[in-house]
Write a structure and sequence with these properties.
With about 260 residues, the chain is mostly helical. The protein has 3 domains: about 60 residues, no CATH class; about 70 residues, Helicase, Ruva Protein, domain 3; about 80 residues, Arc Repressor Mutant, subunit A, CATH 1.10.10. About 50% of the residues lie in helices and about 10% in strands.
Amino acid sequence: MVILACRLTEYGINIKFAMDEFQDILGIAKPKILDQMRSVIQHHQNVTYIFLGSIESIMNKIFSSKASAFFHFARIIDLGGLDINELSNYTKIFFTQHSMSFDNSLDTLISYLEGHPYYSIKTLQTLYYKMLDSSSKTMTQDDCINALRLSVYEAKSYIEEVIEKIKSKKHHHAIIWGLANGIKVKNIDSPTLYKTYKSLEDMGYIKKQDRGEYIITDIFLKLLLQQNSDVALTLENEINFVGLSFKNDSSGAEKN
């Protein structure tokens, strides 16, 4: 590495080294791994390290905790979701360039996906391919709903595994179900409630917005938790897209 560093400096080269899902290192390596990495990396020159992680609470533990070897070692950037306005503008330009027309249904669909990187791109990609196969190049409200429905069903197996994992821990499913449906869970004392919220946050399924306020980080997980019965998870037309409301361009009437 010393020889490599000398050559990098000589030729003015900067290597970018990206490590995705970095929070998993705490579960697959020995506890001292962060100390060992810090002791080596801090001497590297002309090398940029990018640490990416999807579980914010654990990433904060690694980079913000004073007890961590990585405390004040890197600049912390909260990427959040995709900017909805930017995604909308890009999508409209893309569809227009491919001779496809659209109405307000497209904006409604994009907003519903809450800027989730994977689900947004997956659903819009599905919509694009459906339009390629269609004789009409004018996308409708039904096209948007069908693209969303197909994306949900492709992710359903993964989400069901997540739900089963949540159910394996006491109180976890009841609390996240209540969060998804706007219902306050009763008969759970405050200390237990706090510990369960913290556990769900550490698992990466919820995120703290304000004091006592949390949101579910996965829009499709939230969607499946909002279904009235398991039948909705097996019959496509039975999915209830809670909160999805389309406005008709001409009348202004809302349709669910």
